[in-house]
Amino acid sequence: MEVLVVGAGEMGRWAGATLASEFDVAYADRDPEAARAAAATTADARAVALDASETFDAVCLAVPISAAADAVADHAPRADRAVFDVTGVMAPSVAAMREAAAEAERLSLHPLFAAANAPGNVAAVRDAPGPVTDRVCDALAAAGNRVFETTPAEHDEAMETVQAGAHAAVLAYALAAEDVREEFATPVSEALSALSRTVTGGNPRVYREIQESFSGADRVADAAAELAAADGETFERLYREANANADANADANAGGDGAEENEPP
């Protein structure tokens, strides 16, 4: 059984390498050299032309969020049995797959980590499950990932907090922080500086697409403005609210950063 991975960027290469335990893998990318390079690093994989007419048992879309709907429309017809994506947004991707592959098995996946930090948690919407998509999930689990089920609405709402909001908060600190001597560092500032290096060490286009796709940054900005304007009593109330929220969300926010390096096909 062969899967075509459309998009040979970081997340596409991760998908292909992970699926290689269960599938033969082919890569296609708008940059043929990227597809060939990905194939060279995946056991028994091959590169194919992006616009070829060849069909495959399954097609995996590993493209940027902004390209997801068009990529599904273009490449889902190449799937004989199943189509799935690892694009990072679920409601638009699931809707596009339903339209373009109404008779096929359908699955939307979001690895909540950069590929270099694998394995980790993988959100899954089993929109039209079957033996091929089950095999995809089995390959992910066999590689040490925790695949958990969600809905498109729940996933996309969660991304407002764990991606758009979290990234905005870290980037705002990085932009606002003054250069101070190392001796002045506190445990909190050291942790924020480390997070700043993690977020700013990626691809700005990836983070831009997250901010454009999910709200959440505006709530961070509003909360910061409220704190900055608070009198003493108001600040203590906000502090207690923050403490309650931190306790409630500690488990949900644990783990590595979830911005992926999806490259356009």
TrEMBL record:
Entries under PROSITE patterns matching the protein: PDH_ADH
Pfam families assigned: PDH_N
Record-linked SUPFAM superfamilies: 6-phosphogluconate dehydrogenase C-terminal domain-like, NAD(P)-binding Rossmann-fold domains
Domain spans labelled Prephenate/arogenate dehydrogenase: 1-265
Chain spans, region Disordered: 246-265
Gene3D superfamilies: NAD(P)-binding Rossmann-like Domain
Alphabetized UniProt keyword annotations: Oxidoreductase
InterPro entries: 6-PGluconate_DH-like_C_sf, NAD(P)-bd_dom_sf, PDH_N, Preph/Arog_dehydrog, Prephen_DH
Any one biological process term the GO annotation gives: tyrosine biosynthetic process
Molecular function via GO: NAD+ binding; prephenate dehydrogenase (NAD+) activity; prephenate dehydrogenase (NADP+) activity
Name recorded for this polypeptide: Prephenate dehydrogenase
